[in-house]
Amino acid sequence: MTIRLSLGDWALQQAGAKPVRHRVFVIEQKVPLDMEWDEMDAQCLHAVVHGDDGEPIATGRLLPDGHIGRMAVVKSMRGDGIGGLVLQALMEEARKRGDRSVVLSAQTQAEPFYQRHGFTREGEEFMEAGIPHVQMRHVFA
To answer: Are 64 and 75 in contact (CB under 8 A)?
Structure first.
């Protein structure tokens, strides 16, 4: 499979990011619509991966304060390294702009994925949108 990752602002990326986030968070994970969409999208750098057929299959965003969020890969494409590609692209952009670290709120079931990418857990588990999460950080060397 040939995939294409692109980075850009919300105006450029929302056509790809919205359907992935809606499918993964709203439909699959039952996150309320009013919790999924926020004013931060307009301030973030977004990554979107498109598959062979041009359909969006993954997304994530980097906030101005160094948070990575809204990481999502459509169910049929999980386990193929696409999430790691999105995460590494966002981390590299944070590093390029001078961030010393990046932080994220990981669903606890995804904690091992983020650990493989150099993130460490900070603090206790908490609930967000009815889903258990942990805060994790990666400090750039």
So the answer is: no
What are the b/e assignments for 86-118, b being 16+ CB within 10 Å?
bbebbbebbeeeebeebbbebbeeebebbeeee
Alpha helices in 6-77 (DSSP H): 10-21, 33-36
Report the DSSP beta bridge partners of residue 4. Answer: 50
- Is residue 14 classed as helix, strand or coil in its secondary structure? helix
Tens-digit pLDDT profile for residues 35-91: 999 999 999 999 999 999 999 999 999 999 999 999 999 999 999 999 999 999 999
CB 25 within 8 Å of CB 34: no
CA distance 135 to 141: 20
Which contiguous run of DSSP H or E holds residue 93?
helix 82-96
pTM: 0.95
Ramachandran region, residue 47 (left: φ > 0; alpha: ψ -120 to 50; beta: rest): beta
